[in-house]
Amino acid sequence: MTESLPPCPQCSSAYTYEMGALLVCPECGHEWSLASGDASDGAHAERVIKDSVGNVLADGDTVTVVKTLKVKGSPSGIKAGTKVRNIRLIEDGVDGHDIDCKVDGFGAMQLKSSVVKKA
């Protein structure tokens, strides 16, 4: 058995194994190629997050909501066209949410990058 396999870049599990040309994590199910695992240190792999039209997002960007979103506890929700300033990208959001932000009138919340467009 090879003890030199890198840990999983998503959950840092040490129990990775080879499956053909890929490395696989049995704990979270993440698969990646050995070449990309060697290129990064595994602890801080760079992830690219894109908006609904394919623009790359970065921390501090201003985005516009592209469709009306329902918000639990609010009768109106967030309307399409609402600008959100100073976003922060996160990796461990709940249910696919990868943007942490403050929306005027609603407070702190998480959004999915698929419902915003870079302003």
From TrEMBL:
Residues 4-33 form the Protein YjdM N-terminal domain. It comes from the Bacteria. SUPFAM superfamilies: Prokaryotic SH3-related domain (SSF82057), Zinc beta-ribbon (SSF57783). Pfam families: YjdM, Zn_Ribbon_YjdM. InterPro entries: YjdM, YjdM_C, YjdM_N. Residues 49-119 form the Protein YjdM C-terminal domain. Belongs to the YjdM family. This is Alkylphosphonate utilization protein. The lineage of its organism: Bacteria, Bacillati, Actinomycetota, Actinomycetes, Kitasatosporales.
